[in-house]
Design goal:
By secondary structure, this protein is α+β, with helices and mostly antiparallel strands. The protein contains 2 helices and 6 strands; from the N terminus they run βββαβββα. It has a single domain, classed as 2-Layer Sandwich (NE0471 N-terminal domain-like), CATH 3.30.2020. The strands form 2 sheets. Strands 1-2-3 form a 3-stranded antiparallel sheet. A 3-stranded antiparallel sheet has the order 4-5-6. It binds zinc ion.
């Protein structure tokens, strides 16, 4: 079984829908997705104990609006938000973990 990867991504309302190559679908709430941004500025780097301590990040309404999404490097999805934030690379694995948590 090949590793899961998205075959289709579509922002729908306040969600991002991803269709995986095994035919399953995941729906991500945009606000939850932004708050889970894995980039270093948003505090996505785990500390030496493996804990992820997120700094206080200020969000505005635009922070939870998705401007675009694209596949990067065959392993991650880059999300660009309407406040200009685009440094978060969500690996497929990370997305699947988020999807499992919210199901
Ligand atoms: Zn970020």
């Amino acid at each position: 079984m090949p590793a899961l990867h998205p075959v289709n991504m579509q922002p729908i309302g306040n969600e991002l829908a991803i269709v995986w190559n095994d035919g399953s679908e995941s729906y991500f709430n945009l606000e939850a997705l932004r708050r889970a941004c894995p980039c270093a500025a948003c505090g996505g780097e785990p500390d030496v104990m493996g804990h992820v301590v997120r700094p206080l990040v200020t969000y505005v309404e635009k922070s939870f609006e998705l401007r675009s999404c694209r596949l990067i490097g065959g392993y991650s999805v880059q999300l660009t938000w309407n406040d200009g934030h685009d440094t978060g690379l969500y690996t497929y694995k990370y997305l699947q973990q988020i999807a499992e948590k919210t199901e």
